[in-house]
From TrEMBL:
Keyword field: Transducer
GO BP, one annotated term: signal transduction
Classification via PROSITE patterns: CHEMOTAXIS_TRANSDUC_2
Record's GO cellular component terms: membrane
Annotated protein name in UniProt: Methyl-accepting transducer domain-containing protein
Species assigned in the record: Sanguibacter inulinus
InterPro entries per UniProt: MCPsignal_dom
Domain Methyl-accepting transducer: 137-313
Length: 313
């Protein structure tokens, strides 16, 4: 009877070992799928291992996959929408907790900030466009007034027309440079901050997963594989941040171009002021045409000063 009991016990142990091995195989298979980027795979049921507590472990692992999959999908959708200017796409928080939820909240806050910055940039572009139109209209009015007085002051009028043409050309250069600048600047900086924050939080998640895997021991090898994959995703995110930094460097070149164009406009404005002063000294204050020319010249100087102030602001 002793030998019979020993054999039964040995058979039970063998069955338990086989069940545990089958359970580990199921976990490892799901973990390998996750490492390949297949976040839809889940740990399959192993009926013979249910009696040894496998069901609870399986549920925990599958919940981890569920949350990770949901976070990746939601974050990807929100970032993709923001990349095309659709900032209303919110990262859903349902089912997320802990670091996942905290990171989701951070992304949503960054999304709102980006939306506000985009709105400010759009408003600024509209204001600049309107100011440029007013500027060009003023220049045209001055040119017409100069043409009406050309017979009595041909030399000075020719000089003023040349300076006016230069101002129009320099204003066009400044407008083009500002348009290119509007396509970069604050939005790029917000995206860099967002990507950097995502990378930092993702690395933290990978570290937590690795710690949990080490705590579980052999049964946590699958967790370690998933943690490595999450770490790799964080590295890819950091690489994306570097590429955005390169784009910001290109934006700095545009800023340099704007500064150069503004400097040229300053020189043109100074020359225009000298021409207008000389013209005012030569004309008769009793002539309606000459008075209109003087008023237009003064208004032009004011418009140019306002134009430069907006561009520098």
């Amino acid at each position: 009877m002793i030998w019979g009991g020993a054999r039964r016990r040995a058979a039970e142990l063998e069955a338990e070992v086989a069940a545990c091995r089958a359970a580990l195989d199921a976990i490892s298979e799901a973990a390998r799928a996750g490492a390949r980027g297949d976040m839809e795979r889940r740990v399959a049921a192993v009926p013979e291992a249910e009696a040894y507590g496998f069901a609870e472990v399986r549920d925990d692992v599958n919940r981890f996959f569920d949350v990770t999959d949901a976070f990746i999908r939601e974050a990807g959708a929100a970032l993709a929408a923001a990349g095309t200017g659709r900032f209303e796409r919110e990262l859903m928080l349902v089912g997320l907790s802990g670091a996942f939820r905290s990171q989701a909240v951070t992304i949503n806050e960054a999304r709102l900030t980006m939306a506000e910055d985009a709105a400010r940039l759009t408003a600024g572009d509209t204001a600049r466009g309107a100011l440029v139109e007013d500027f060009e209209r003023d220049v045209l009015h001055v040119s017409q007034a100069v043409g009406e007085s050309a017979r009595s002051m041909a030399g000075t009028v020719d000089a003023l027309q040349g300076v006016t043409a230069t101002v129009v050309q320099r204003a066009g250069e400044a407008r083009d440079a500002v348009a290119r600048l509007g396509e970069s600047s604050e939005t790029i900086r917000q995206v860099i901050g967002l990507i950097t924050d995502v990378a930092r939080q993702t690395r933290l998640l990978a570290l937590n997963a690795a710690i949990e895997a080490a705590r579980v021991g052999a049964a946590g090898k699958g967790f370690a594989v998933v943690a490595d994959e999450v770490g790799r995703l964080a590295d890819e995110t950091a690489s994306a941040s570097t590429r955005v930094e390169e784009q910001l460097g290109a934006s700095q070149q545009v800023i340099t171009e704007v500064s150069g164009a503004l400097g040229k406009i300053d020189e043109s404005v100074d020359a225009m002021r000298d021409g207008v002063t000389l013209l005012t000294e030569r004309i008769s204050t009793g002539s309606d045409t000459d008075q209109a020319l003087t008023d237009a010249a003064v208004h032009l100087e004011s418009s140019v000063a306002e134009f430069l102030t907006v561009l520098r602001g």
